[in-house]
Predict the structure of Mechanosensitive ion channel family protein.
Amino acid sequence: MQYLMDLYRTSSTEIIMLFVMLVSIIPLVFLIKKLIFVPVKNYLTRHHYEDYERVLKKYPIFRYLLHSLLGIYFISWGNIFHPSSFKAHILLGIKDTIVILYVSLSFTMLLLTLIDAGADLYHNRIKTFAKKAPLSLYFQILKIFVMIISAMITISYLLNISLSAFLTSLGAAAALLTFIFKDTS
């Protein structure tokens, strides 16, 4: 019975800490938005950078940047929920998994949006050179590369193995599949 009471007290403490963590981020988000994002956007629109204004309206760069900063904030709060401080270890694992997925997704979306915005600026600024050298293919390859790297880092973290061990395992699996299917063509 005492164990259930300890678990009840611990989980209510966790819920209170999560509530404090989420409520304390609200003023910080508005402060970052008002002090950083709005002045940058106003500066770019005020000084007649039409291309930048169009790109900022078309691509949600600031939204993904804010999500990335929010993910860093959640990671910084991870030290408060130390495994020895409560008995429900499964909640810690679920929280860590959700935070890592959120951070990796937000950073990946930020990088992909920046690549798209850069490609759009490139195509509108240098139209004559863009016709001679179609670099949109290179932008697409860069986006695929970013997605693959992000997926590998996320999967290796979620499986709790190092990235080098994960890449070694992928290489061994590719060698095994090559050896098995070497005579099929």
